[in-house]
Structures are given as structure tokens and as C-alpha cells.
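Holo prediction. Input below; ligand is zinc ion.
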Amino acid sequence: MKRDVMLVMILLMAIVSCQQQVKKDGADNSGAMQKDTVFVKTVLATSKDLACGMSVTADVADTAHYNGKVYGFCSPDCKKGFQSDPETYLAQ
Ligand SMILES: [Zn+2]
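Structure of the complex:
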């Protein structure tokens, strides 16, 4: 019986430490997201979605790599359109 109590205590401690870990990770993630936004603004080859012309500096849903450059797109569909014929979009 006493051993069971010890097991419950250990389990509770493990759960509490897990929750603290999650909270800590959450804080780290918000910092990482801010870094991602800066990363997107500095790395993208164009500030516009080449498929639909929308600005993608603030909100990039997807990116495609082509000829060593990174292009941002507002949606996976725009990315697919670009990838199906990149030269046509780049010539515009
Ligand atoms: Zn688009």
C-alpha cells in the first residue's frame, strides 16, 4: 500500500514537471515565430506572391525554392501553380 502511494506521488511530480516544460516551450515558440517573420522578410526573393500578386512579406503560407532563391506564396495552390511553370511566372 505504501508503495502505491509513492508511485502516485512520483506520477504526480512527473505530470507537474511536464506541464512546466510545456509552458516553457510555449514561451520559446512565440519567440521563434517572431524570428521566422524576420527570416521570411529578409530571405524571400520577391515581396509578392508571383502567382497571384499578393504581398507575402507579412503572411507567407508556403515557399518554393527555385534557382537558389526562395519565393513566398499566400497558399499551397499558388505554390503549385508557380512550380508547374516557374519560368512563365518569373518572366512576368
Ligand atoms: Zn497567392
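The first strand starts at residue 62 and ends at 66. That is the main takeaway for now.
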